[in-house]
Specification:
Blueprint: H1 10-22, H2 27-33, H3 38-49, H4 63-66, H5 68-87, H6 92-109, H7 118-129, E1 134-137, E2 144-147
Antiparallel strand pairs: 1-2
Helix pairs in contact: 1-3, 5-6, 6-7
The protein binds zinc ion.
């Protein structure tokens, strides 16, 4: 299966940008994923969201993804993303968008707050692409979780099977299933 990079019409680019803005993406994501000019994107952002984009740096560290609850959310998203990558032929950013929408549906269905923002989800895919993070199988439940690449699978137990002592077992994770 070859993945040809589609030549996007301007209308398609605007549609993509609007979808990302509605999902709460930061302006930097739009700049990176469309060919629209900064001025154009800024106007679009204000029109669609009704506010100015927040300034400041994107989160560049992998630390957040390693904390307990965020890790479970990030892993859920990555499992969906990997699945879509296998079954659907889409541009990379469209896979992120679709996977994020499915992630939101899953958390909503379970009455959970979507801890993972679309901007973080987008960063996460980049971290996995460049090998800074990976998915490792839990030695207890067999689910695949976001870890550092040097994690030894044999010794790895996920945050659902081994929640921190302060957390009620399975409670704060909201019964998220990784299968
Ligand atoms: Zn586990």
């Amino acid at each position: 299966m070859t993945r040809t990079k589609s030549i996007l019409t301007e209308a398609k680019q605007i549609e993509r940008a609007v979808t990302l803005i509605n999902l709460g993406a930061r302006l930097q994501v739009l700049e990176s994923e469309t060919d629209l000019s900064y001025e154009r994107l800024l106007r679009l952002y204000k029109e669609v969201s009704g506010k100015s984009p927040s300034k400041g740096q994107l989160p560049f560290s992998t630390d957040w993804f390693m904390t307990w609850q965020p890790n479970i959310h990030a892993s859920l998203f990555m499992n969906i993303h990997e699945y879509l990558n296998k079954v659907a032929e889409m541009d990379e950013i469209d896979t992120v968008i679709k996977a994020y929408q499915l992630y939101q549906e899953q958390t909503q269905a379970q009455g959970l707050e979507a801890l993972l923002s679309v901007t973080r989800a987008w960063r996460l895919v980049k971290f996995v692409d460049n090998g800074m993070l990976t998915l490792t199988e839990c030695n207890k439940c067999g689910g695949r979780f976001v870890t550092h690449p040097h994690e030894i699978a044999k010794h790895y137990t996920c945050g659902l099977c081994n929640p921190p002592a302060r957390a009620g077992k399975g409670k704060a994770a909201g019964g998220i299933q990784m299968h």
